[in-house]
Amino acid sequence: MTAPKDEQPDGALVIDTASDRLGYVMGREGPYVQLRPVTGGREWDADPARVRPATEDERLTAMRERTRALNSASSGGIL
Questions:
Q1: pTM (predicted TM-score)
Q2: Number of structural domains, the chain?
Q3: d(CA 24, CA 61)
Q4: Fewer beta carbons under 10 A from the terminal one: N or C of the chain?
């Protein structure tokens, strides 16, 4: 099954413009897109009409946030 043209595929890095949060598309539940924060954690439901692809700058921010979270976890949470 292919996603409609304006729908982001699973795994895509997107911005939920309603909450101004970066997240990865994890799937769909009812009328919502389920997104997971780039640093991991609990998914949230977003209105598909308020979700857009992340820009290149936002992708770099996501990579930095994820790297910082992984480094913190590997050092026992000490930054």
A1: 0.79
A2: 1
A3: 13
A4: N
